[in-house]
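Below sits my pick:
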Amino acid sequence: MAVFRGELGLQFVTHLANHYTVPDLVTLADLARRKGFERIWVNDNIRYRGQLVVLTAIAARVHIPLGTAILVPYFHQPLDLADSFATLSELCDGREISIGLSRGDLGQAPQHVEPIKPIAMVRETAQFLRQALAGNEVAYADYPLLRDFYHLNPKGKFRLAFKPRCTFRFYGGGNGPQALRMCGQTMDGLISSGTYIPMVRVGRQAGMLAEAERAAHASDPKKRLRKMCELNVSVSRDRKKAIDFPKRQVAHSILQWEALGFDFEEYAKLGVDRRTVLELQQRFACGATVEEAAALVTEEMVRAYYAAGNPEEVVQQILEFTRAAADLGYDQIVFAKLGPDYEEAITLLASQVIPELRERRDRA
């Protein structure tokens, strides 16, 4: 079995960490850097602290590479995105900015926007930003969906008036076959988002990666997709808190199983009753909040999505999933959707998981 030799990062999820202010998140990012983590990713969500503001605050104080995991194009006007990322680059001392893009969460995003043509929206946003951030002139007419969705002038053109100060790498975050093929064709890398654990457990992950890699090879035989996986972690010496914390996230993330066509056997492998997932789907369709839906989430559902529990059991779960990441050829593992307390989780991961992973790497 392969040994993971890649980068270890963290994801800050603002809707799960809503009790942390922006200065708190900056302090936690600095703690993560000092504890040996190599990159910070920040998620995107409506009603919570702004992703690009959080990234800017971190960049101003902490010397660590940054990324969006993921950014939802429907939430942001593309001209403003180009200006914002170019401005952010001036705080990054030449460190690459990773731009992860995807359609957004199936449970919450449609409550706020109409997700029209999601594959095309993500593709055009990536292509537009790639050209704009390279300093090229971009014609709005070349991006018909962006032009119509954001009412851009069909005859207009865009060119930054200043030069970005770092490189940018683009990642796609979709899970379906069309999204994976688009990712392979358009992006520099692939983000296996919060579905990584269930997809590994039901045996789908290798096929998903192969779909994207075939598309990448067809577009350019020399192209190699960089691969990042999000490994959800809730760890605490208080086991009950560690199990309860993920329930809000699982309540809407688990809806992806229906969109991906999970069958009876796959639900059984994960120990989850499909009827509960369908009930969650109905609750969200009727306008339920995440907090209301979370009351339906069981421990089995949590463990289908998270390495969760006390430090001893979580270490073993993480080692299992990092071995799988090595076998699948991932370049980066990101400990994601941390909880229940960021400082405790970061400290426990740094003291118990990172040394074990590095020792295994050095022995191999």
